[in-house]
């Protein structure tokens, strides 16, 4: 069985001196009415021979529609293992975003409702926004909280 490995970015900014992190809410019918504990960092599976950081940058653009400069200062956050067994490697990077800007996410197709024969298209991410770090901890998947903790620790220890 092929192990599933993803890479993503924990994009952050300081708003009036307060740390905020950017989270994405998964699109589609399974997550439509789920909120706290279901948001995630934008991430995706690594393609053959692809650099992990390059994957994180590519996935952020595909899921959110924002390009991250590969020459930015990236903070290595290590990896976590999600409940389903997927390993996620992550980097922190400072980037602002105009919250009024529309989200541009790639899409996926799914038979919905199940066994209906109807194929529908859904955005991979239906909402995305910055949250103050305390609020982000409540909204993000439990296994990804460690990435927020590591980011905070690195930001405290670096000038």
Query: How many separate domains?
Result: 1
The count of strands amounts to 8
The low-confidence parts are none
Average of pLDDT: 92
What is the number of helical segments per DSSP (H or I, 4+ residues)? 3
Provide the CATH top-level class. Alpha Beta
* Topology as a string of helices (H) and strands (E): EEEHEEEEEHH
Q: What is the distance, rounded to the nearest whole angstrom, between the alpha carbons of the first and last residues?
A: 43 Å
Superfamily at the CATH H level?
A: Nucleoside Triphosphate Pyrophosphohydrolase
Oligomer: single chain
Shape: globular
Please give the share of residues in helix.
10-25%
**CATH architectural designation:** Alpha-Beta Complex
What's the CATH topology name?
A: Nucleoside Triphosphate Pyrophosphohydrolase
**Rg, Å, rounded:** 16 Å
Proportion of residues in β-strands: 35-45%
Find the structural class using helix and strand composition. Answer: alpha+beta
């Amino acid at each position: 069985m092929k192990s599933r490995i993803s890479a993503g970015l924990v994009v952050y900014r300081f708003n009036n001196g307060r740390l905020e992190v950017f989270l994405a809410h998964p699109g589609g019918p399974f997550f439509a009415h789920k909120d706290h504990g279901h948001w995630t960092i934008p991430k995706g599976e690594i393609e053959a021979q692809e650099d992990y950081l390059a994957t994180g940058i590519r996935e952020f653009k595909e899921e959110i529609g924002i390009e991250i400069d590969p020459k930015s200062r990236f903070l290595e956050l290590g990896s976590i293992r999600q409940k389903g067994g997927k390993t996620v490697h992550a980097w922190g990077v400072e980037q602002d975003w105009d919250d009024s800007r529309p989200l541009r996410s790639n899409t996926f197709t799914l038979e919905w409702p199940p066994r209906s024969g109807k194929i529908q298209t859904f955005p991979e991410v239906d909402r995305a926004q910055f949250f103050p770090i305390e609020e982000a901890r409540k909204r993000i998947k439990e296994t990804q909280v460690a990435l927020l903790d590591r980011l905070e620790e690195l930001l405290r220890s670096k000038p």
